């Protein structure tokens, strides 16, 4: 039985692909011709060149496939061309689901995001899979595109296509090449670039556990249902405190008002539009931080047997990996992938 994985050159998708191979699955990877394939080194999987924009390439990739893990996504918080995000996340997902249905696959696990669920709710109850958010509650193009893409997955399930939706929170751990926005927090801390923090919070999860949740969803998930794959709700101050305990570096003590952070974000984005570089403080990220992304993931534990581990060891593995792969001063990057220089 062949299993197709999209997004295997990315952080979470790479872990999903590697766990599938380790479990004995015959794995096929859909990769773009422009993708950096360094993260696939040592991964025993077939590679098929294609693109979510190209129906013919999707059809070729889907031949003989029984299961699909659609992990690929454009998660940029800033771009000069936001239409690219919708093309990849919404239209790309719609095309893949359509082709998968035409090829009669047995199961599709669609990777959404906790952002489609983690919206402010009344009272002390945390958001969960039953929380009904609206498009107007989505901040920024990335969140809006993923909300719309999740609607495509739900619609496909209603039409008889066997889709299960998973909603990862904020994965941390080794192999975050880009890095992700959460990984950027860790890297900035390691490089002493976080003199202050804002009052916000995330649900962190070890990337290995989140990937394992994908495999469980393929085996035990109910068609059309969504499952939050998270672990621990932590304020940013708690996350930085944990990193301080791991590294011995001092955590910032100054809490920055959101208004000040937002003003800095607008100034940074204005400078980015002039210079063409990616902003260090995306306005969308600052706007998102006004709300703590706290959720509960009990449903995945009850129905899938999902049992994530502690987050501190995951943070420690992330710190070690960034340190060994050139994300700290005095380290070098080669071939588009970071590698630690010899001491």
Q: Summarize this, please?
A:
By secondary structure, the protein is α/β, with parallel strands linked by helices. The chain is built from eleven helices and 14 strands. It has a seven-stranded parallel beta sheet, with helices on both faces. A three-stranded mixed beta sheet has the order 7-9-11.
Provide a descriptive summary of the structure in words.
- The chain is α/β, with parallel strands linked by helices.
- It has a domain at 2-172 and 205-232 and 294-308: Rossmann fold (3-Layer(aba) Sandwich).
- The protein has helices spanning 11-22, 55-62, 83-102, 140-158, 181-190, 207-220, 236-247, 258-275, 283-288, 298-304, 311-324, and strands at residues 2-6, 26-31, 46-49, 65-70, 107-111, 163-168, 170-172, 196-197, 201-206, 226-229, 232-235, 254-255, 332-334, 337-339.
- The strands form four sheets. Strands 3-2-1-4-5-6-10 form a seven-stranded parallel sheet, with helices on both faces. Strands 7-9-11 form a three-stranded mixed sheet. Strands 8-12 form a two-stranded parallel sheet.
- Strand 5 (107-111), helix 4 and strand 6 form a beta-alpha-beta unit.
